[in-house]
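Hi R.,

Here's the chain you asked about this morning:
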Amino acid sequence: MGEKTEIAWCDSTFNPWIGCQKVSPGCDLCYAEDMMDKRYHRVTWGQRKTEDTAPSVGTRVRTSVANWRQPVIWNKHAAAFQAQHGHRQRVFCSSLADVFDNQVPEEWRADLFRMIEATPELDWLLLTKRPENIEKLLKRADVGMPLPNVWLGFTAEDQEHFDRRWPIMREIPAAVRFCSYEPAIGELRLTPHYRSGLGGLNWLICGGESGKGHRPMHPIWERDIRFDCEQAGISYFFKQLAGKQAIPADFPLVRQFPEVRP
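And here is the predicted structure, written out as tokens:
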């Protein structure tokens, strides 16, 4: 659960717990559900209400003590990592859950933030579909933001969800704020927000949906969001095409990272 990863925009993943509940259409083909519920039967994944599905909370399982020791080990070797790779180690937390899921026991989240504060040489990338929960859950965990080693991100699979989640996220102090436009299942433009405010959005990741039955990502969506990021001065990272198709040699592959403290 704490390990190197094939996710191109981070160096490692750490999962303090496993399990979640679907909250929007971007969750419909969740890879974590497919792996941890359907394949390994570690948890029962919570479902969102649809025409065909009744809502359910699901279950959550905390990961092992040995797994929780891993970031502390990474932190001890941070100088060597930075010398080898030229940047601080970027840790994506949580790839199999959501840090700001309000069904998680509050002491687990408090333990996580104590560890984040105790590993200042790591950059922690926290990605959520629940920005509306962040402030109240951090207050309960007695965490003050911004933490200098926390990058705070939100998922926006289309325009509707960006428009809903970004106004919440931009009010929360963070060393880095980022948006994951993945899975990109609908058009997303930043232009409606130029006047109302994009200040504080430092980074955007774009990627198509993977897995069986993946929904398409139209090439114009990628072109337009890349253009918007360039115009707004937002670092842009293209992750993958839908279905993890091979990226053509002539594709304008842009993989930028935000500027952060050394």
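One quick note: The chain has one domain: 2-17+63-244.

Cheers,
M.
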